Structure formats: C-alpha cells, structure tokens
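Reviewers of the previous submission asked for a worked example of the structure-prediction workflow described in the proposal, so we include one complete record here. The input consisted solely of the amino acid sequence. No template or homolog information was supplied to the procedure at any stage.
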Amino acid sequence: MKKSYLYLLATIAIIVGLTYAGVRGMDCLKNRPASPEEDSSQFVELTDVVPDAILEIRYFSTYNFVGTRIDGYLEPTALLTRVAADSLKAASDDAKALGYRLKIYDAYRPQRAVDHFWRWAENVPDTLMRQYFYPDLDKSVLFEREYICAKSGHTRGSTVDLTLFDMQTEKELDMGGTFDWFGPESHPDFCGNPETQEFTGDGSKSPAGRSITNEQFCNRMLLREVMMRHGFKPFPTEWWHFTLADEPFPDTYFNFPVRQL
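From that input alone, the workflow returned the following structure tokens.
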C-alpha cells in the first residue's frame, strides 16, 4: 500500500512538472522577441506623421500590373520608418507651400509582396494588365531587364512611390506617364536631363516612339527637387520612386504585413 502511494505521488509530480514546463515553454514562445524582419516597432503609419498625404495604395487594390491584391497588403494604409516619415513630412510641407499635396502609391512593401511579384512574373501567360502597364514588352523579359527583382528597396522601409496632387485643379500633376509603367518612358532622364533640368524632347529610347512634353518633364523635375531637398535620393528608372539617403535599415528586408499599427 505504501509503495502504491509513493508511486501515485511520483506520477502526480511528473504530470505537474510536465504541465509547468509546458506552460513555461509557451510563455517563452509568447515572449520571444520577433525576428528583425517581423519587427515593426520602428515604423509608423504615414498619415499619422503626414496628415496631408493622399493615399492610393495600388497593391491593396486590383489596379496594378498584376491585376489582383498583392500578398501582405491587409489594409489600404502606408507605413514608413519613423525617420523616413519625418523627412517626408518636411517634403510634404514644402509641396503644400507650392500648392500641392503628396499622393502616395506605395511605401513599405513586405518581402511576401515581392515574392508575389516574382511568382507572377514566372507565370508568363498571365498578361491580364499588359495593356495598362507593359504593352511594349513581352512578359518573358521582365526578369532580365530587372523590372521584377528578388529584393526591393521598399522592403527596407524608407522608400516611397508618389506623385504630386495639384490643389488648384484637384487632379494629379501630369507626369506624362502612369505609376508602374514598365518602359524607358518612366526614366527620370526620358526626354531631358535631370541634372540640368533641361528638356530635350528626345523620345528615341521609347520602343513605341512615345514622348512627353516640356511641361510634363518639368512636373517630374518639381517632384524630384522637392524630394531631394529633404534627404531622398531618386531612382534611375522610375520618376515616382525615392529612398531616404540615410535610411536606418539598409540591410534589413522586413516581412510584416501592411496594416494599421
């Protein structure tokens, strides 16, 4: 009888011990720090810092080059690192003094969204949105011409895609081309020299012989000037794309979803 009693006590102790270890293990998992790629603590909602910004988050909608909502975009909001948002606020104030507001197409982009782009590009027959974004290209060349890449500066959290919204006309400023157009017409040096801001009118790089006007080129240069004045550097192939020169996470590619923080 005594032996059975001791056995029962030992069994109970084991069960209690395993249960405690399990709970403690769950607590450890719960309290374990998120990986750097999943840590959004240094990010802010862009409109909390730049309340004048207009959001048109294309990858939350179906009006984008893929034609469907992109993975990782759970809400139509824009996120940036705190330092990038502060610099964008200065650019916004500058633009507002000139009669414009910033219109945002994309900001932080999770790695899972970039992976979605890659899978879409591998599916060459899927050309649902070709007429709107890449009519001059065969989809099979998107990788070799680096329109689609495995990594994006957006994923580091300090890059933004945007344009200017004219408060007087209540329309976007005419940039002579749409956001996410795949072609040389999107290059800042298309039909002009961004360094001198001289319009040349040379559209010879366009496979379809397209061109932009002097006014459209000047509008691109206005956006470029406003952004560069506040610490953002332009991208050589997209007039709408700017990255904070002194970005805080130059080597981290984040992957948390886009949603309200």
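The first strand starts at residue 43 and ends at 45. We consider this example representative of the routine output the project will generate in years two and three.
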